[in-house]
UniProtKB/TrEMBL annotation:
This is non-specific serine/threonine protein kinase. One of its GO terms (biological process) is tRNA wobble uridine modification. ATP binds at K41. It is an enzyme of class 2 (transferase). It comes from Lipomyces starkeyi NRRL Y-11557. Keywords: ATP-binding, Kinase, Nucleotide-binding, Serine/threonine-protein kinase, Transferase. One of its GO terms (cellular component) is spindle pole body.
Amino acid sequence: MSTLDLRIGNKYRLGRKIGSGSFGDIYLGTNIISGEEVAIKLESVRAKHPQLEYEARVYKILAGGVGIPFVRWYGTECDYNAMVIDLLGPSLEDLFNFCNRKFSLKTVLLLADQLLARIEFIHAKSFIHRDIKPDNFLMGIGKRGNQVNVIDFGLAKKFRDPRTHMHIPYRENKNLTGTARYASVNTHLGVEQSRRDDLESLGYVLMYFCRGSLPWQGLKAATKKQKYDRIMEKKMTTPAEILCRGFPAEFSLYLNYTRSLRFDDKPDYTYLRKLFRDLFVRDGFQYDYVFDWTMFKYNQNHNTINSRNGEAEQIEENPEDKDTRAARSGTAVAVSQNTQQVGTVPSSARPVAAGGTTPSRRKVTDWQAARDALDPMAADIARRAAGADRILRSSAKTPTPNPYASAPQPMQYRKEDAPQNGASSNIPQQWY
């Protein structure tokens, strides 16, 4: 039986493959009752080192946290272990490529705050992730499209007893676990990982987003071990100040802080978040959820619509050329000889009134309506972008309150050992 013939839990139909994670492939799935789309991760029951059941258990322990996907079902179907989980959007690596492999400082800081919150929550639940990288952070979809989610807990490990908080012992001679590009120096040296290593890896991720690449990328070697050794050597001989040269000092402060932590130290997450929040305020950014890819997508749509609107106007001026122009541009312009004009909403696409009659035809003469027809998400993107423009235009007259600006000073921050249910929310009004 092929994977596409599988029915998972008698409830989910398997679709196309959409990705791969540690120890498994991920497929698009559909709830055959509700039609809701989900993600389904499959692992062969004959896998040499099965991990999916363990990963499902970790997700269950972390359930309820902000940015933690919910596991709908786990079990075995035919020759596969299967986990059904929330469907999410593109990864930060996907979006990085979409934005020509460079993020603005604003986008990096917007992400940094959410990423720190996710890692803090995982640590509060007594786990370390051990594979912090852009591919393992996915944006949400729909109403949660601005929320960063963390995935792939196949390498996660408990660093302490959840009840006694007794930390695991310090060990050496460990194999490298995770992704070499973002691994901490101590991980390269074979030291048992702890909370500090997740945070150091995050520092490399942030600089990767700022710089476009890291100095130890692209190194050649005959064997994997030799390559890892070269990466380690380059990492160890690159001071944080050199790695972060040309960028705000907060990034080198962050890296130096994480590298200075002892094995069982509890990181000061509040201090690290405040580093980046203060930088955010100082540079005058607005917490409006307008990321680089939001503007990139908006500008692409805007240019495309303007181009197509220009063609439509030319077609209306020269109706005898409309079919030739449509064929040359690759734009499908459906025209019925007697009943439909160019730019008219097709009858099949027009809404039907409650009484069963079709509203009268109207020409699509404004670019906003055409834009929405091309891309259902464009209206929301444009709304957020326009809101950001209005804020910028009005800021010269009346200062707009910034959610960061109301954040309490360090001595007023609430200290707590274990935030409950993702207390480190990315919602600005809940800064603490």
